[in-house]
Each structure stands twice: as structure tokens, then as C-alpha cells.
Amino acid sequence: MISTKVFYKQISLTAIFIVSFFLASHAEAASLYLTSSNSKVTVGSLVTINLLVNTQGKTINNAEATLQFSNDLIDVISVKGSLFSLWVESPSFSNSSGVISFNGGIPDPGYNGGGAKVLTIVAKAKKAGTASFLFGDAAVRENDGLGTDILSGQSPVSFLIASNVSEPEVKPSTPSTPSTPNNPEKPVTPPANEGVGEAVAISSPTYSNSETWSLAKSGVINWGLPNKTSAVETLIDHNPYSTPSVKYAPAIFSKNISDLDDGTWYFHLRYLLNNNWSKVSHFKIQVDTTPPSDFSVAPEKTNNCIAGLRLSAKDATSGIDYYNINIDDQSTVKVLAADAANIIPLPQSEDGRHKILATVYDKAGNKTDLSTEINSERLNAPILNALPSEVLVGDKLNISGQSDYHNAPLKLAINSESGVSNEFDLTTDESGKFFFNSESIANEGNYKISVYAVGCNEMTNSVITEISVTAKTAITGSTTLKPISVTPAKDYSLIFNLLKVLAVLILLFGWYKYIIIERRLFVTKKRAKRLSVEILLDKANKELAVLEKAKKLKKLNRNEEKSVTNLKKIISDIDSLNRNKK
User: Fold this and answer.
1) What are the two backbone dihedrals, phi and then psi, of residue 262, each rounded to the nearest 5 degrees?
2) Is 357 among the domain residues?
């Protein structure tokens, strides 16, 4: 009977597992790896396979996995758990399907460490061959309250099953002086790998492929050992054939390495069995954590256009792998490093500025991004030299001109008023000049000659220059031809400039007329004012004469006398002012 306490623990653990299934954020850290007690066994013998976990600094409370084994070569005898005390699914196996599975947990505070034994598997060899234990689905969950899956890698194991094993000749091992990362040795011819016992297979969930580059400066290395191994020696350096010298007794089955500088490293291992050192195993590790440098994307220009892009970058360790190029947020183009030595052609696009987003990757996966712009300008039009406006039927047209682009393609077209069109390809010389002699003109009529520069991919983004020519038949018996005059294409710029000058003259003339009219109006106002004053003054004198005449007939009172005096004074002032203005 399961106790109530254990039952509730299992229920709680199951709830955590269910929540973790939905909330896992896959913060990778831990690794699962398999080791074998023997790298080579005989048919009928037993072999022990251990499943180990390395949390790499994290604390875990659960792990689960499905293992697949070579059930045609071996039979599993037993599977026992070690690290975990709580089981959602107890360890089980099936020889018919070749599957081992488990799902176990551990109470708080969990487990943090390396090389802990999760399962011990005992199997019996039944047929010669190479037997393997491989991982199916697997997870290692962190004790963070969320059950985050932090599994970063799995390392399988394999061993050889032979029908019989011959004892090797015992020879003493001769260690060589190890090198260090600070003093890497130059590559040398592999020395004779002397030792008793076969070299073991080395694997790593971090550096799964020795021939590829890795971004990881730290990782774990695993290996299997024969039964009754008493010690191992390891070493990591830059020499591919060093003999290890750092001893571990009792023997260990994995090792964490850290802080590896960029470059190629080698991990070396040998084991001590029955007081004899085995042959040395070597495992290559390639590390590159530095992104590419000196990255540039530059337009490759010809006379007439931007023909493409020139890509350039450097990576001292693993080397450049490929580039991604995106223009104006269109589809991304992948360019391999080998192809980047050539000009990368671009499709012809509209005039103006174009945005380029580029990324370069090295062989380890480091990348460098770059954003830049290129400017595609409109081509300048060629200039045609003058041609006679009239030619005779049977004559040839000697066409010439000047372009801004040397050794560059042009298109020249001769179009008749009847709709016949002929187009010709020309190339300018070193100085940009071009020449063309047409065939004899067969018919009378008007002909239009046009020429333009040709851009990349024979796309035209140039202004066209045109002139017209009229062909006539010569008058029989006449030795004098009509005068020949040059009629180039209409140049509206001269007319426009003349119109501008004329507009300025009209404005100046209008301003002059305005000043004259204002002046005349001022003089007229002044005269009118003077005339008004004279009229008023005349009326005032007449009124004063009436009063003087009345004064003679009767005596004026004081007020009337005062009015006469004031009126005389006013008339005198106005008359004086009027004389001064004159």
C-alpha cells in the first residue's frame, strides 16, 4: 500500500508535470548521456548501460525519456532507477519493441550537479554486431515552479559485440609531453598510439559534430569505459595527438569544459585497466564566438549603371559561410561565400535611392548586419551633331555625336513618316564619341533620328535626343541644289528664356506707367486744390465788398465790425499761403 503522504506527493508532482508541459520555455542547460561499461563484449556476456544527467548549474526535480535499443542484438535484463524517488511512470522496458521508458521526480530542494545516475540498465548480448542505445523523446525539468524543460542535448552510446575476443599484446605506454592552449603545437604526423585496450568513443551533446564549428565556449564531454576501469587521464589543448596527463581516480565518465577561446581544440582521454593504460582517444572541438568583421556592401558601377553589388567581409576563425541580401523589402537572396567573389547582379529598378539590408554569417552561425542605400541615377542623353535639314534621295546620313559615357552602349533609331523604323546598336569610343553611316535613303519624306544611352540589362532610363531630316529627289538638269540648312530638334529652352525676359520688360513698363499716372494725378489734385482755394477766396472778397458797401450806408454794430475784421484777416492769410505755394 502506498502511504497517504507519498500518494499526495505523486499527485502534486503529476500536477507540476502537467503545468510544465504547457508553460515550459525551453531555457536550455541540462544534458542526458549514456555510458557503457564495455566498448566491446562477446556474445552471451552482460553489459551495463548507465543513463546520467548533468544539470550544468541548474536545479532539477524531474526527468523523463524514451530510449530505443538494438533488440535484434541484445536483450535487456533489468532497469533500475537511482536518482529519483518519485515516479509518474516507473522504469520499464520491452524487448519485443526495443523501448525503455521512465518519468521520475525528486522532492525539494531537487538536484544540482553532474554525472548523477538516473537509470542502470543491464543487457545481455545475443548476436554479433554494433548495438546502440538511442534517445527518443526526452525532457529535464528545472525546479523553478514552472517545470521548465532545460534539456540541451542527449548523447547516445554504442558498443561492439564480437563472437570472441582475442587478448591484445601487452605493451607499456609512453606518455608524451602535453601542450597547453597558450602554447599550441604545430600539427605533426600522428604518433603510434600505443596502449593496452581499445580507445573509447568520445561524444558530446554540446559539440555533436567535430567537423562543424560551434558557438559554445563551454560544454560537456562524455565517454564510456570498460568494467573495472580504475582511473582515467584527460587533457585539452590545440595538439591533435597529445597524450593526456591529468589523472582522475576513481574513473569519471564525463567532464565539463569552459571558457574555451576561439579556435580548434582537442580533448584527449585514456583509461587505466588492470594497471595498463589504454590507447588514447582524441576528440576535436571547434569554437568560434566572434562575428564577421569589415562587412561592406558596395555598388559596382559601370559607365551607364549600377551593374551589381560587391560583397566583402572577414572572419579569421571559422570563415565566411554565406550572405543574405534584401533590396527594398523584397524577397531575400542567399549568396554563398564562394559566389560573393563575383559581382552579385541586381535586377534593374526605378531611378532613385534603394534600401539594402544585408547579413553575413560565419560557419559557426555568428552574424553581422548592415543597412545601406544605393542611388540609381537617370542616364544623361547623348548629344547629336547637326545634320542638314534636307538631303537627296540616294544620299547617306553621316551621324555623329558625344556621350558622357565612354565605351558604353547606345541605341540609334531612324523612323520615317511612313512608319518604317530601323534601330541600330552603337558603342562610344574612349572619349565618349560615336559615329554612324546609314544606308542610302531610298524614298522621299521626313525622317526622325533619335539616340539614347542604354543602361544595365539593356534597360533604358535615359533622355532621348531627336533631330529631323527631309529627303527630296534631285531636280533633273539642275546643277544647283537648294541651300542646306540645319534644323535641329526644337529647343524650347531659348523660347522659354525669351518669354521670361519679355515678362520682366512688361513688368518694368507697367511700373513706369504707374509712376507717370501717379505723378499726373498728384499734379492734378494739387491744381484742383489751388483752384478751389482761389474760388473760395474770390467768394470771400465778394462777400467782404458787400459788407464794406453796407458799412458806408449804415453803421455796423460791434459784432458785424468784428466779423469784417476777421474776414479780412482770413482772406489775407489764405492769399499769403497761396502765394507761398506758387
Assistant:
1) -60, 140
2) yes
